[in-house]
Specification:
With 226 residues, the chain is of the alpha+beta class. It has a domain at 68-140. It has 9 helices and 7 strands; from the N terminus they run αββαααααααββαβββ. Strand 1 (16-18) and strand 2 (26-28) form a beta hairpin.
Length: 226
């Protein structure tokens, strides 16, 4: 937890004010690193509530190679709703209230927030009950799970990066190629959200497994006392 608090303090004191895609603005720093020894325990935050079940269901969703939010909704996980909802309201089939910039408007306009929540509830219900609607509007493109489990090659074949990784760890643990990447430049434009945790690499030494993750972008939640 202290490492995370140190990160918050560092960004507040040394970060750069920048604009961003959402128009909200950020204070950011580049290339900050943290290290955790899992032998000492799981590095979960203790100064704010962390809905761990949502973390688990999203990770299982990735591992399944799934890219449709129906699985998440079936497990009461709403992490990816807005990305799918945005595709729905921008489609030619949507005829409901104007949802332009729904995220920002819902924060500042109470009346609009009620309309938005009603539309979102209706959208989620259709994803859960209407197979055809879910197939078309629950999809997020070739995001994490697709790249991890079914990376598409130039020859039309697919690569299961996770299966290959596990096999290499078992048969060639000294390899320096124990890498899984979610950043597929060809697919990025069609993804609802390009991967934030873009690449991770494993390292085996002395019977222990280490992992290093590269994350291109990450929100920092300032809800704790520094």
């Amino acid at each position: 937890m202290k490492q995370y608090l140190d990160l918050e303090k560092f960004v507040l004191e040394n970060g750069t004010h920048k604009g961003d895609r959402t128009g909200t603005g950020t204070i950011s720093t580049f290339g900050y690193q943290m290290r955790y020894d899992l032998a000492e325990g799981f590095p979960i935050m203790t100064t704010k509530r962390v809905p761990f079940k949502l973390v688990v269901s999203e990770l299982l969703w990735f591992l399944h190679g799934d890219t449709n939010i129906r699985y998440l909704l079936e497990h009461n996980n709403n992490i990816w709703n807005e990305w799918a909802f945005e595709r729905w309201i921008k489609s030619s089939e949507y005829t409901g209230p104007d949802m332009t910039d729904f995220g920002l408007r819902a924060e500042s306009d109470i009346a609009f927030q009620a309309v938005y929540l009603e539309e979102m509830a209706r959208f989620k219900e259709r994803i859960l009950k209407d197979d055809d609607f879910a197939t078309q509007y629950g999809e997020l493109g070739n995001i994490y799970g697709k790249q991890w489990r079914e990376w598409r090659t130039s020859t039309g074949e697919t690569i299961d990066q996770l299966a290959d990784l596990i096999e290499m760890i078992k048969t060639n643990p000294n390899s320096r190629r124990l890498i899984v990447s979610a950043w597929n430049p060809e697919d990025v434009p069609s993804m609802a959200l390009p991967p934030c945790h873009t690449l991770f690499q494993f390292y085996v030494a002395d019977g222990k497994l280490s992992c290093q993750l590269y994350q291109r972008s990450a929100d920092i939640f300032f809800r704790s006392a520094i």
